[in-house]
Amino acid sequence: MDLIIRRAMLPRSAASQDGQAVDIGIDAGRIVAVEPKLAASAAEEIDAAGSLVTPPFVDPHFHMDATLSYGLPRVNASGTLLEGIALWGELKPDLTQEALVGRALQYCDWAVARGLLAIRSHVDVCDPRLLAVEALLEVKRRVAPYLDLQLVAFPQDGILRSAGAFENLKRAIAMGVDVVGGIPHFERTMADGAQSVRLLCEFAAEQGLRVDMHCDESDDPLSRHIETLAAETQRLGLQGRVTGSHLTSMHSMDNYYVSKLLPLMRESGVAAIANPLINITLQGRSDTYPKRRGMTRVPEMMAAGINVAFGHDCVMDPWYSLGSGDMLEVAHMGLHVAQMTGVDGMHACFDAVTVNAARILGLEGYGVAPGCAANLVLLDARDPVEAIRLRAARLAVVSRGKVVSRAPAARAALSLEGRPAQVDFKLHRG
Ligand code: FE2
């Protein structure tokens, strides 16, 4: 074998060994064995020593065309969504393909180091030059040996509101962009928003593509485009291929209406993506106090059988000044905002940045089992809850069977009389 990771603990969603440590055998880019005390040898062996090995983090919602542009041409003074969109509009004419590719590749380096090996990125198609589309298609080719990048044709300014946007979106798909995007709540009227959902879903059905729309990213309880998205999914037979991103208006909707909406979403097989870091900072901006959190109804959707994942959305761009590609930071924020502090809830938040997100992207061979792709992360934590609590170091990241990143464990040396020489921030009893 090429590589064996010994004495690994698996997350609940991948654990078939009942909490027992396993050895993971890897050959020719595939996992070939997952069992205790694997009787084999390999060119390279890593001792996990009881730490968690997980399939890679997956970011199901990102904007790689804008990432790392913080401060260009100026910073977002108010920190609001609308100033962010205006700022992006100011930046667009100055974009060059070279700068876009450079920033995106730098972000992908960060992602790999964070064990984030699959990203669905929206790419703005409203610029008729389709410069960002060309740039991200080039990035997709360049990172393909180590990272799965899926692209969504995203009409930032609306397909009905912005002249030529739908045609540009179709051109982007013809160039190789994977998924059909949309932004119904940004169209001029509710009727236009619903019409945009219909047109885009019909186009996706014709082309046999997946759909992922920015949907109802507002605090307006009457923004109900998710209902149209679910209904169109059923009408066109798109079940399992459609995702509503953000869905923040659901936070503010009437409970009776939501009690009808959740079963509709479940029957339609529509998945949901919350973006906790962005939702908690951008929503509720018109409120005084009490101030709404604005994140969609994550635990309620999960309980209704809807697949829910968490996305990063933004890192150092016109909408968000922070972030470093750490999906554990995303899970940490999601856990807090959704108050998912029970044990099952915390594990569900880990799933939201791993297995649930992988299902949305339709990743093949994702998991820790024989036959799966050898994409794995060794974390400096013993279980997913500890991983979220510590935003644990990625001790080793394996992509396509090769170790592509290593990082030291987080330790601090103490100089205190009568106290230990070192702390690792883990609970040690007895
Ligand atoms: Fe977004």
Automatic annotation (TrEMBL):
Pfam family, one: Amidohydro_3
UniProt KW keywords: Hydrolase, Metal-binding
InterPro entries: Amidohydro_3, Metal-dep_hydrolase_composite, Metal_Hydrolase, Metallo-hydrolase_Enzymes
Keyword Hydrolase: yes
Matching Gene3D superfamilies: Metal-dependent hydrolases, Urease, subunit C, domain 1
GO MF assignments: cytosine deaminase activity; isoguanine deaminase activity; metal ion binding
The UniProt record lists the keyword Protein transport: no
Matches recorded under SUPFAM superfamilies: Composite domain of metallo-dependent hydrolases (SSF51338), Metallo-dependent hydrolases (SSF51556)
Superkingdom: Bacteria
GO biological process, alphabetically ordered: cytosine catabolic process
Domain Amidohydrolase: 44-404
Name by which UniProt lists this protein: Amidohydrolase family protein
